[in-house]
Design goal:
The chain crosses the membrane at residues 181-205, 217-238. This protein is mainly alpha-helical and 239 residues long. 74% of the residues lie in helices and 0% in strands. It is built from ten helices and no strands. α2 runs parallel beside α5, α2 packs across α8 (202-208) and α4 (85-94) runs antiparallel to α5. The longest helix has 27 residues, at 99-125. It starts with a helix and ends with a helix.
């Protein structure tokens, strides 16, 4: 049921993206906003569902396999979208994207994160699968299983590694690049998923753990917003 749900989300988003490109190609700002919103919605919604499958046996093989597989599918179906506020900072820093358009994309990403959260909580309330039982009533799931400073360092390091890899594989054939990035994300999730969740995406972090930001805003914004953004700026400054 969960796999069918995620496949349905991807198909629906693909249709919405195609319709947006066709109908709004002369309205650049609205088209950009909607494309980025739909793409980020897909990643956030599917990742919310994947988090519920983390305890499926055999652990952690099932969760890691699904992470790799769906990361590849996201990379193949969401070309042209960053779906990550940190990724949007790079063209803004280099002058390839205006501040206004960059802010529009980041706004779309956070809107999508909130919509994906609400949509998945509604789907979970229907209890279509065993993993959905009790999911809507969960508060802050507390992904930080270590100290705040260690969590900050982990997310900072993972952001640096991820962003550096993105820069290094820019010239690689796209059909190979998507697998390299998916493999890297899977490895980072395996290495730090049990400590911080290995998110290194501010919008995705907000979608997955919105209640935590309400309860412990300073702590979670430091780890899941500032740390990955700082990692991105370190890469931009060095390279």
């Amino acid at each position: 049921t969960s796999l069918l749900l995620m496949a349905g989300i991807m198909v629906a988003v693909g249709l919405c993206r195609r319709l947006t490109r066709r109908q709004l190609r002369f309205h650049q700002r609205l088209c950009t906003f909607l494309l980025e919103m739909f793409s980020t919605f897909q990643i956030c919604a599917c990742t919310n569902e994947l988090c519920l499958l983390g305890n499926v046996e055999p652990k952690p093989h099932t969760a890691l396999t699904l992470t790799y597989g769906f990361t590849v599918l996201h990379g193949l179906t969401l070309t042209g979208s960053t779906c990550n506020p940190c990724g949007t900072l790079q063209p803004m820093w280099g002058g390839g994207l205006s501040v206004k358009m960059g802010g529009l994309k980041i706004g779309a990403q956070f809107v999508a994160a909130a919509l994906a959260r609400m949509f998945m909580r509604f789907i979970w309330s229907l209890e279509m699968a065993e993993a959905h039982f009790g999911a809507p009533s969960q508060g802050c799931s507390n992904p930080m299983q270590t100290t705040e400073m260690q969590a900050f360092c982990i997310e900072l390091l993972f952001s640096v590694v991820f962003q550096l890899t993105i820069l290094r594989v820019e010239s690689v054939n796209p059909k190979y690049k998507v697998h390299l990035i998916a493999l890297l994300i899977t490895m980072l999730v395996y290495a730090g998923g049990n400590l911080t969740g290995a998110i290194f995406n501010p919008a995705l972090a907000f979608s997955l753990h919105a209640n935590c930001f309400y309860d412990k805003f300073l702590s979670y914004s430091l780890v899941y917003w500032i740390a990955p953004s700082l990692g991105k700026f370190l890469i931009l400054y060095v390279f």
